[in-house]
Structure formats: structure tokens, C-alpha cells
Amino acid sequence: MLAFYLCRRPQEDLAAAIGMLHEHTRPEQDEGSLRIVKEYVLPALQRVEADLKRLASALGRAGSQGEHSG
């Protein structure tokens, strides 16, 4: 379930940014939206796979600690 949200959030952000580009009528508004996509959305999308690996690793460690503590 957590993996789903790790993937979903950047995609939602990208969809919102594309929606803003369609709504804007002035170039300076588009520049701001494109800056957000470039600085925040695209890097988040590029990190998804690494984030999923870190999540799997953390869950694996948590699971193995739980096995040893009981």
C-alpha cells in the first residue's frame, strides 16, 4: 500500500502541473509552472524507484527485527 502512494503522489503532482499549464494564459504563469515541474515534480518521479527500494529495505529490516524480538 505504501508503494502505491510513493508512486501515485509524483504522478498527481505532474497531472496538477499539466492542468495549470492548460489553465494559464500568460507566459509568465507557464514559466512558473514549468519551473515547479523541473525543480520538484520530475526529480520526485526520478526518485520513485529508489524510494521503493528504500521502503522495501526498511520493511525487510523491520520485519526481521520483529522476528527476533518475539
Could you please describe the fold and organization of this structure?
With 70 residues, the chain is an all-alpha fold. The protein has one domain (2-65). Helices cover 93% and strands 0% of the residues. The chain has helices at residues 2-23, 27-69. α1 runs antiparallel to α2. The model has no long low-confidence stretch (mean pLDDT 86).
In short:
The chain is mainly α.
- Average of per-residue pLDDT values: 86
Main sheet characteristics: none
Poorly predicted ranges (pLDDT <50, ≥5 residues)?
none
What percentage of amino acids are in beta strands?
under 5%
Helical content, roughly? over 70%
Number of domains: 1
Q: Which structural class should the secondary elements be placed in?
A: mainly alpha
**Helix and strand succession?**
HH
Number of helices: 2
Per DSSP E runs of 2 or more residues, the count of β-strands stands at: 0
The outline comes out as: elongated
- Provide the gyration radius in Å: 18 Å
Distance between the termini: 25 Å
